[in-house]
Each structure stands twice: as structure tokens, then as C-alpha cells.
Write a structure and sequence with these properties.
The chain is an alpha+beta fold. It has 8 helices and 15 strands. Among the domains are: 88 residues, no CATH class; 127 residues, DNA methylase specificity domains (Adenine-n6-DNA-methyltransferase TaqI, Chain A, domain 2).
Length: 355
Amino acid sequence: MNKRIFKSQTLDSGDVPFYKIGTFGKKADAYISSELYEEYRNKYPYPKDGDLLISASGSIGKIVEYKGQRAYYQDSNIVWLDHDNRILNLFLKAFFQIVKWNGTEGSTIKRLYNKNILNTEIILPKIKEQTAVGKLIEKFDYLITLQQRKLEQLKQLKKAMLQQLFVNKNNKQPILKFKNFRNNWREYKLSEIVNLEDNKRKPVKATERIRGKIPYYGANGIQDYVKGYTHIGKHVLIAEDGANSVDDYPIYFIYSPSWINNHTHVLTAKEEILSSEFLAYALKKINYAKYLVGSGRYKLNAEILKLIPLKIPTMNEQKYIESNLSKIDKLIILQQNKLTQLTTLKRYLLQKLFI
């Protein structure tokens, strides 16, 4: 581990980032002076290029490869192994992804101690085989990283389109307009363009649910699969209470039989004026923080929900917008499936390549 750095020795900005356990693998929020860095690096243990840094608290066992950058790491919480040439870091990096640390079996550990690491057994093949195994897993890590970037780019594209294709409160037309659509958008209260079908909801305790193929929805999406249903047809679900996030408020479009509990509102678009698919996309644009009541466990009351204003265009423009966004959603699902396949195959290989 590195020599200890005291809080009084850190700076809000500076030349050398200081990574604490909370910023390990992320962006540093503290720094130390170049003078202190050079002094401690020369006097005390410091990782070599290629060493694998391990988080010993917080997200236990998180790995970051040190690549020679000027940086300093929190003592005891971030450690690395100083080893001889009988083991390659390339092989060790793969091993760390499936390792079961000694003395931690069957427990929820809050800290990884030196004894847990040093008493963990590893069976080593010859250097040639270590290289082959390490390079194979490294290739998968590279492919997974590329796939994650593709997925994130698509999500960012969708986010940008949601910002550009929908009208904000001060305008009557969106910034990004499709050809042949020039009409102003009209503002309604939600109660004027949707019906609320909360009266059909029915919560069922987990111990009382009968297993089946129908999705059982709560505030944050599908919780289970059951027999029977409470709603059928096209609906938009929006959390009433218990949402995991206020910034990314849970909204789902459903179009098949579903069982819905009492923690999510059920909206049905009035089809003569509004498309359900368009409604689901439009609702994602709203900042719900100002409509929520309570503290700790926020709630979106039905009466408040009905008064939320929403601007919509003609039905033809709604269909055109939802069609384009739907194409992006399908691409996101495709890329997510590819990412899942890669990570599943990598997990299988890790299980088979190590003794």
C-alpha cells in the first residue's frame, strides 16, 4: 500500500490526483503537491507500471491497472501485490475476476484484509499458458469495452433526440423539426388527454403470488412473473411512490396483459388525440422533482399527476416521432443483448480456464 496521506495534506486542485476509495476507478476529487508525491514515491512502496490495484473496502475487489500515470492512492483501502516473475499481471488480472478470497466465504465482507489476500491459493500454469489465458480474457475485456461504448453512444443519442424533438415550456415547436411538420404544438393538462386506470391495480405479496408468464409491475418495473392480470392493452406506467430515482423517473410503455400493483399509476391515452407510445416518450421529458410530495419516500399523487401540463403535436407528427425513437430503442436492445452475450461468454471462459 502507499504511505498514508492525511486530509491536511490534500488539496482541492493540484498536480497529482489522490484517489480515495470513493473515487477509485473514477475521477479524483482531491490532490497532493508534486513535492509530496515525489518524496513519498521515492521513500515508500509505490506500484510499478502494470501492477493491479485492488480495492480493499467499499466495492471489494475492484481492479484498476496502474499504467504509470502520476497519481497517489489511499493507504490500506487500495493495495497491490508485489510479486516475482513466476506470475504475469496479465494472468493475475483474469484470476482476480473470479477469485474467492480466503476467509470470506459465506459472509458479506466489508473489508478485505492482507491475510485474506495473502492466504488465497492460486494454481499457476507455465508462463506460456498464463500468457494465452490472459490474452484471451484481455480480448474479451476489449470487446466488452467497445460494446459498452456503442451502447452508451446510442443512449446519449436517444437522450439528445428527446431534448430536441419535444417542445419545452417556452416554445410551440421543437428545435429539431421533421420535414412537412410545421404546426404549433398544443398544451393540455394530462387529465384532458389520458384516462387514469389506477382502480384496477392489485398488490399481491411475494409469498402469495402464483408463478406464471405475466409480468408483475411495481414502481421500478417488472418485479416478478405471475398468473392472471389486472390490465390488458396499451398503457403507460409511471411510479406513484417508491421510485429508485428522481432524476430518471420510472416510466414504462406496456402493450400486453400485465399485473400492476399499487405503487405505479396506469395511464391510457385518449386515442383520438394521443398515441400511447408518444405519451411514454413525452413523459420522460418532464422534471418530476417539483411534483413529488413527502420526504425520504417521495410520492406522485394522482390529483397532481392529472394537472401536469404536456404539449403535443398532431397525431401524424406524434407517429413520426415515436417511430424514429422506437428505432433507436430497438438498436439499444440489440446492442444490450450483444453486451450480455459477451459478458456471459467471458464468465463461462473464466469458470473453465481456472482450476
